Every structure is written in structure tokens, then in C-alpha cells.
Amino acid sequence: MAMKTSFKSDIEIAQASTMKPIVEIAKKIGLTEDDLELFGKYKAKLSNEVLAKIKTKESGKIILVTSINPTPAGEGKSTVTVGLADAFTRIGKKAMIAMREPSLGPTMGIKGGATGGGYSQVLPMEDINLHFTGDLHAITTANNALAALMDNHLQQGNELNIDQRRIVWKRAVDLNDRALRKVIIGLGGPLQGVPREDGFDITVASEIMAVLCLAADLKDLKLRLSRMVVAYNDKKEPVTVGDLGVEGALTLLLKDAVKPNLVQTIEHTPALIHGGPFANIAHGCNSVIATTAAAKLADYVITEGGFGADLGAEKFLHIKARSAGIKPEAVVVVATIRALKMHGGVPKTELAKENIASLTLGFANLQKHIETIKSFGLPVVVAINKFITDTELEVQTLLEWCRRENVAVALTEVWEKGGAGGIKLAEELLAVIEKEENKFHPLYDLSDSIEQKVRTIVQKVYGGKDVEFSSKAKKQLLDFEKFGWSNLAVCMAKSQYSLSDDPTKLGRPTDFTVTVREFKPSIGAGFIVALTGEVMTMPGLPKKPAALKMDVDENGNAVGLF
Question: pTM value?
Fold first, then answer.
């Protein structure tokens, strides 16, 4: 397919592309039709049998793609992830992608989809960005089945002595709906249930999403589901799914959703798209099952962590990699001239103008993320995701800064040129993997106290001075110690826009203190969520959501989907 500069929308490019039958894509990674569970002609799930069969195969190299702190100017991390895999394919390497599934909330809100952009996309982008194979609906159903079963337990006598004031399990919906953040349920008299305060999370913030994404297989999924804490009893002791005895029912609802989804890029590189926890709330990585399966089926796997290296990459390295026994080979930090200028103080309306002074100030944000990845003992390569408004002087200024800092760097033009625009990045990665020693190690031990783990992340990853814990958080720490939860990983819920917990502090803020207002135990997932700032588990819609531009033509083709 000839690549050329185009001002077509992402969906126009996707709809003009020719997909191959998914059975043909599967052949590239040594799979047959019998290994697949087909969802039409261009989508499939990998069967349980093939997942078990490939476990003994040698694993390929896993490359993590992350970025600087995101801005409204865009970074294009998913676009680089897809284009990099296509570039590896172009230079003769057996490559695959392992990415997250998009949530309908941000898709119909402001963020957009998660299938890449331009000529660097996974297909069919319409399906992936909408209902796909129904995984998120299954997670929503399992989440709400648990809520219904628990409320029924209250109605039918409450044998577990659940304190209805201390129920922590919320209902879920895969939409941005601020009106559902706090609700009252059970009104209408004795036959309508037990009245209590409740609320909704967006589906991707449900612990079930995190559990599915960290489970090693169906058996592990059931075990993790059983450990989830849903409430506390009248003695203030945790009540779990296992106590309710419904882990089997939840696993049944998720038995197909746990299987990874196989699709393709515009250039027909195989891609596993599976799971999608938010990185500013949960751990922000696609499923362990998909990533490890891709590593068994390909020599190079390109995967990503949500938002910047302070969130998605930190959680990939501390939570996902440790849980799954993954050792990444190298990390790509995606940066754009536009975003760096915003971190240097330029408003979004002025980004098209050349501004070397502000660009140079913005380098501080990139530098911190590079330092963070190196502190984990991993090789790093900077990918400059090129925009058409970037001037030659701006590009050269960033390239020269990277060279002075002795950081591998590649100008990346995958949005415009597809895999051809990522060959330089692929070659830089291969050179770095060959040349630099991989000394991957976490920054904290699981035996550290929860307080110390949070402080380590704030000081070593964010560059902050210290942490303050609210009185509620301090009490929770004492309770968690008593319950035996202190040896779990920590998952920070923090603004994605800043290294600090204040989204207005761009660039590289210093001498700041992060406040943890409360903790949320995710025992099934295997981590404790530390809530900071104003991060909410149910987002709202903007004044003019993306849904206003969406439609469908008379032939059933999506319109306005990016």
C-alpha cells in the first residue's frame, strides 16, 4: 500500500484499507483455524486449548511503549505502538502487538479511541472502538451480578452480618456518566430491597477488569475473583466474594472474555487486543494472558502502558511484570514537539508556531521519564512522534538534546507512513537491546510497608519531596496490616497530566508533596489503590462530547468515529 501525506480522518483511512481474513493472519504466527474461535471474518479469540499448547514455547522479547505526561496536544502512544510492530515486520522480524481494548466512555467523550491513527492502526477500528467481541460487556455484567447477589444476600437475612454502611463494591457501566457517581438504591418498601447509598464506577475501573487482566488463566481468574473484598461486617472484618460463594458464577460469566482477541494492523501484522484498565485509576495495561501469549507466538512483542511513564510504565514494571514474571527488553518513551512545548508553557492555541525556548523548557518532563526508566535498569529509546506542524529547527533541537544526553532517539513518522515511518525506531531498539545490559529490577520490595512503597513511587518516579496521608488513610494502613495486606503492590490513582497530584503543574515540578486521601484494597488484583488528588472512578462527559459527531450511514458504516 503506497503511503503518502493525507488529511483523511482515521476512520476514512481505516475504511479504505483492505483486511485479510483473520485465518490468514493467524497462519503468520503458526496458528490454524482450529486454534481460533471466530467472530466473523476479521476477528477471533484464541481458544483455551491453544493457550495451553503454547505455554511451553520459548518467549520472545517484550518491548514496552510509554510516553511523557499527556497533554491536549496528543502524544500518539498507541499510534507508535502499532507502527513500531509494522516496522519490525518490514525489516523481517516476527512481531506482534499486545494492546488494550478501548472503553466506550472516553470513546464517546473526549479522549477518542485506542486503535492508533493515520496509517498506523489496528483493524477493524470501528468494531474495536465500539462493542468488539463483548469483553467489556461481560465484565460489566459480572460486576453488576456481584452487586445484585450481595444486595440479595442482605434482603434474604444477611447471614454474613454485612454492615450495609461499609459496602465498598459499586455497580458499573462502560460510559462516562457523572449522574451515577452517588445513588440511593432499594427504595420503595420491604419488597424492593434494603435501602442504602451506592454508586457506579466506569467498567474499566472495576476490580474485575484488573483481575481479568492480571490472571494467568481461567483457574487463576476464579481464585482472584474469590479474594475480592466487597464489604465489611459488623466487626469491621472484610467480606469477600468467596464468603458469598459466587466466584463460580462470576467466572462462568467471564469464561469467554478471558480469551484474548486476535485482529490485524493496516499492514496485516497480528495484534492481540485484550483488556483495558485505566492507568490513572487502575494499572493501565492489557492482559497478562495476551502479552504472554504474544511472546510465545512472536519474536518481538510491542505492548504499551497507559498515559505517561509515571503511571502506565511504573505499573507495568511494578505490578504486571512482577505478577506475570515478565522481563521487558527495552522501553520506548514517546514524545511530541507539541506536547513538549505545552510542558514548556505554550498554550494549545499557539502550538503551530515555532518556539525553541518553550520546547527546551519542556525537555525537563522528558528527562524525568527517561531517568525513571533507567532507574529500573532498562534500556530506553525516545520516539519523536512527528506532527506536520513541527519545524525542522524544533526537530533538530530535540534530536541534538537527546544526543547530548546520550539517549537513543529516532524520528518516527508512522502516522503518515505506517511501518515505513518506524524503521529507524525499530533499528535503534535492536541496537540498544544488543548493546546495553538489561538490569531490570523493581524500585521497591513487596515486603516494604505500604507507606514506604507509596513514598518510593512519589520520590523516585514522580520526583516529589514527600507524601502526606489523611487521617482516614492512616487508619486504613493499620487495618490493612491487621488483615495481612501489607505485602501487596501499590497502584497509584493520580492525575495523568502532571508528575505531581496537581494537574496544573506541567513540566518537571519539584519540592511537591503528594496527598493520599484514602486507600482502596484490590485484593483480587493483588494491589492496594492509593487515591490522590481529584481522580474519579466515574468520569463525566465534556460540554461537547465526541458522540455529537458520530453517526452511521444507510449502509451501516460508522461516521465521525475519529
Answer: 0.94
